[in-house]
Amino acid sequence: MNREIRMTRKTNGDRNAKQRARQQRVRDEARFRCRPSRDDLARMLLWKMIMSAEKHHLGQRQALDRLRDEIVDGLELQGFDVRESEDVFEELAARYADGLFPFRPKRHLKPA
Q1: In which residue ranges is the amino acid composition biased (Basic and acidic residues) (predicted)?
Q2: Does the reported pTM lie above 0.85?
Q3: Which of 34, 36, 73, 109 qualifies as a cystine partner to 40, CB 3.0-4.6 A?
């Protein structure tokens, strides 16, 4: 007897539910381990770079302009609008330049 075994394909809903559950586990594990995300690192790096350029007054505008140009070039390669990207960078640079720590505490990372 030849038996044909068929694998049924998962529905989009099943795949999406499984992906949501997996992603929630990843987020929960990261929170438990107090692991920063790629975005957390990128925000902190940008803030540190802007603060460093502000701190060293010699050539600060040139340094910020060079940093802005490199970031905007990368964003343009991804399809973002150059002018909008420059505006976002300048707004962040102006906000960060006051020297205050701009990030809210991550209360979910604090020990209970």
Answers
A1: 1-17
A2: no
A3: 36
Say if 83 falls within a structural domain. Answer: yes
pLDDT in tens, 70-109: 999 999 999 999 999 999 999 888 888 777 777 877 777 7
Helices 38-55 & 82-96 angle (0-180, nearest 10):
70
Task: Return the DSSP state at 112.
Answer: -
The count of domains in the chain is 1
Q: Which residue has the tokens 């949501």?
A: 20
User: Could you tell me which of 80, 41, 43, 46 has the C-alpha nearest to residue 64?
Assistant: 46
- Give the span between the Cα atoms of 61 and 59, in whole angstroms: 6
Q: Is residue 22 part of a domain?
A: no
The answer as to whether 101 is a domain residue is yes
Compute the distance between CA of residue 47 and CA of residue 109 in angstroms, rounded to an integer: 21
